[in-house]
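Hi everyone,

Forwarding the result from last night's run.
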Amino acid sequence: MAIPDHEHFDTVRLPRDDEARTVADPTANGTLHWAPLHSNGFRDRMRVIAEWCAAVRPEVMVVDVSVEVAMLVRLIGVPVVVMAMPGGRTDAPHELVYRAAEHIVAAWPQDLYEPRWLREHSAKTTYVGGISRFDGRAPERVPPEPGMNLLVFNGAGGSDVDTMSVKHCAAAHPQFHWTALGVAGTPWVEDPWPALCAADVVISSAGQSSVADIAAAGRRAILIAEARPFHEQHATVRALERDRLAVIQHGWPDLDDWPALIGRALASDPDRWQLWATRGAAARAAVAIERAATRSAMTSAS
């Protein structure tokens, strides 16, 4: 995926930290998730981050999923905003990073999903809604293919589904027009928005970005929870099922199950995606991050 040029946007390419032939004590006796001993890649990765912090002196650093990066920058005196993730984040590393964080941003609506483990940090948590790069983009009018259009849609996070899975579905159910984007074996598409807008039903895994993009497009959906650490996607689909935002599945359906699932999806109300609160979510996150930086600066100055 290409990263767009922007006058206020720079990138730092980090060394890989997962190429060592052998790995020793990667969890530091259960206190972290990935900190292997004597790993040159891991050491170089952390060195680049520390050197960048020393040179740039950021007012705040937003860390997505790495407990180790969050703790590194906090230990060298940089305030950290952590992005919360769904699922059972009650293990020692997650408890550590959420306690250490200056602020926590949850990219989903609090009314639909408030995990118990996050409630103890409610005073420093902002639920902003689903963050999609398509927020505010007008729906595109794309000439539809004949018949019912199904889009099998996956992001960069990977999936167990490949082109053969989709081909088997298309062969078994030719009454539907099947398209795949982001599925292993298909070309990468920089802008999936037109395909999203043209789909009568979107079939997708339940990653945070995919769910938010579907919500922004307001498409009827079948969401399939895939195996992820801490049961992340299963927690997401339970919340979506409870409030009837999508048809959900735990694992890729059997071939005979598709007509009924598609029928259920077509009977669903796509307007319920408004409950996922994608409109303005990124702006709300930016405000929360800026406020965290301001609070930290005021505390340091007092």
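The chain has a mean pLDDT of 93.

Cheers,
N.
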